[in-house]
Backbone:
């Protein structure tokens, strides 16, 4: 069943179409990542789903409610959790006081001790929030997001400012939550976070969703272009190569093609025949970041190649 | 649908919810001892300074009463304004810019419960000051308790409501937390001076007529009236109470129209990541 269902969502700020005709569905227990450059409309979209911002057009259902309906806002918020970008906790209260207070807002909160354990703040429980490090405050933030035992959790750049082990811890926590059926809507700038956590990802650019799919298949990543890299002995005339490879920044020859079998066959046959070593030969799928940059209008930095030129 | 059958107000459980929120508002106030001391200490310190230096002189403006009889209600009014207006305005701006208001908006805590708790918090702190000042006046300077307690309570309740509304309205007009302290202090202290907190003003003077446009003088007058021991004075300053109520009503309109849960500096949608650590540091100091 769809926990979140959006159709034709639009929002304008003055002359700017912040969100234009966005449609998406998020199913129960799914981690759905929203990627996009700053100003792409991610935050606006998420804020409309949270019921924080009003929409101009479109149909939106979140946990069976219209988030813009003030009458049901409280019922909806009792079933959702939010972790925001801002580090926003009263500095003079202790960790336990803040958790206990927020637990009191929800009908069926998780026990405070369980949250402390989940986010690894047991040792800090009686410390004032202002004495926590930045990373500890973010973990407290995460704890506050899940204290109401939400069915739907919004994570807005949840691990920014975490050290690598704290990030792994946060990812494990999110995975544990989704195993328990929690649905997660994630916005982040970290591609490894998307690959580690999300079941599906949508890329937004200029207010629209420009691609959607699994992290493995986004933008045709699982098919389409690959990058072949290798090195040849110095002094070899590049014109002798059977493929149109160009030197990259690190001196490796590089070739992009969506016909990798043919290109490799041509290249290796030639190398065997001529007795040339192809040092460091690798074939790579495009990274999620390559795909993301291309979808959002940035050229990935490497020699452009027309597939038609691959074999001569 | 399930939702339409649910009541928006849940009776005793919501009363308990507000009670708990007031408790945490109080904790947050008292756990910041410097802010607590400054909010409450100012009225006490100024009353003692002024009462000890000029308190026993008799004022012709007051019809021959001792000046300290004016200072006790004057600083009660000051304490109420310092809490319901200055403290509330500053703390709302800081909370909004830190993103605390946005977070509360996204929690199930109803807006009405939050505003009730924030107001109750200011009222409790004001009440502590009123009691403290009454006791210091009574036992330190022989200022009798007001002869008309009902009039004092009404003046304080209307004053608290109006100045809370003014505080909320002002908070919506201040763009950022760095500006909050200075802006509030300047408005507040200039008006306090003009409104006769430091010395009684002749009610027929031009200054009094100017100050009468603003609500501060009316609160001082309304609180002073029940302390006015001259024969034939009722203690009910209805005119002043009415003017405060009008200010409160106007401020409520501004507050509701202008209210924002989101930090002002974040602008509309999109935008980059906003680190608030420097802002946080300022708000703590």
Residues:
């Amino acid at each position: 069943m769809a926990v979140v269902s959006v159709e034709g969502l639009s929002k304008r700020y003055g002359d700017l179409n912040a969100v234009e005709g966005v449609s998406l569905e998020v199913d129960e227990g799914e981690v759905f990542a929203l990627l996009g450059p700053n100003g792409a409309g991610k935050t606006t979209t998420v804020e409309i789903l949270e019921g924080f911002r009003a929409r101009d057009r479109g149909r939106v259902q979140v946990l069976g409610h219209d988030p813009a309906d003030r009458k049901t806002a409280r019922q909806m918020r009792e079933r959702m959790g939010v972790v925001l970008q801002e580090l926003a906790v009263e500095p003079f209260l202790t960790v336990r006081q803040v958790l206990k207070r927020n637990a009191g807002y929800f009908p069926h909160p998780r026990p405070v001790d369980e949250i402390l354990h989940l986010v690894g703040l047991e040792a800090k429980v009686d410390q004032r929030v202002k004495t926590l490090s930045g990373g500890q405050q973010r973990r407290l933030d995460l704890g506050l997001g899940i204290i109401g035992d939400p069915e739907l959790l919004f994570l807005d750049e949840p691990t920014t400012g975490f050290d690598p082990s704290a990030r792994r811890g946060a990812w494990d926590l999110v995975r544990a939550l989704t195993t328990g059926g929690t649905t997660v809507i994630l916005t982040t700038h970290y591609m490894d976070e998307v690959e580690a956590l999300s079941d599906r990802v949508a890329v937004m650019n200029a207010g629209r969703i420009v691609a959607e799919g699994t992290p493995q298949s986004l933008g045709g990543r699982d098919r389409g272009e690959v990058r072949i890299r290798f090195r040849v002995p110095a002094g070899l005339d590049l014109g002798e190569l059977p493929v149109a490879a160009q030197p990259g920044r690190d001196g490796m020859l590089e070739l992009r093609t969506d016909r990798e079998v043919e290109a490799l066959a041509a290249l290796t046959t030639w190398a065997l025949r001529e007795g040339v070593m192809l040092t460091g030969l690798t074939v790579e799928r495009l990274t999620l970041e390559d795909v993301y940059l291309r979808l959002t209008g940035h050229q990935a930095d490497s020699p452009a190649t027309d597939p038609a030129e691959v074999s001569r | 649908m399930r939702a339409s059958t649910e009541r928006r107000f849940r009776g005793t459980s919501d009363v308990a919810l507000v009670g708990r929120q007031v408790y945490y508002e109080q904790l947050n106030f008292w756990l910041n001892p410097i802010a607590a001391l400054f909010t409450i200490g100012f009225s006490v310190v100024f009353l003692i300074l002024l009462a000890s230096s000029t308190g026993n002189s008799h004022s012709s403006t007051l019809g021959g009463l001792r000046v300290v009889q004016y200072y006790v209600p004057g600083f009660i009014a000051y304490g109420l304004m310092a809490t319901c207006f200055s403290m509330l305005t500053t703390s709302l701006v800081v909370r909004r810019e830190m993103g605390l208001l946005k977070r509360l908006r996204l929690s199930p805590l109803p807006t009405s419960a939050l505003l009730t708790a924030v107001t109750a918090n200011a009222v409790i702190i004001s009440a502590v000051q009123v009691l403290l000042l009454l006791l210091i006046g009574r036992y330190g300077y022989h200022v009798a308790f007001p002869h008309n307690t009902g009039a004092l309570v009404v003046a304080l309740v209307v004053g608290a409501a109006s100045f809370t509304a003014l505080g909320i309205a002002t908070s919506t007009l201040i763009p950022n937390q760095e500006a909050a302290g200075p802006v509030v202090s300047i408005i507040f202290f200039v008006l306090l001076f003009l409104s006769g907190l430091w010395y009684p003003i002749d009610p027929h003077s031009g200054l009094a007529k100017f100050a009468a446009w603003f609500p501060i003088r009316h609160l001082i007058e309304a609180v002073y009236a029940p302390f006015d021991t001259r024969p034939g004075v009722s203690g009910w300053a209805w005119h002043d109470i009415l003017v405060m109520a009008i200010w409160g009503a106007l401020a409520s309109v501004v507050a509701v129209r202008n209210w924002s849960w989101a930090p002002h500096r974040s602008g509309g949608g999109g935008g980059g990541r906003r680190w608030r650590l420097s802002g946080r540091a300022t708000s703590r100091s």
Notes: Chain B is about 70% helix and 0% strand.
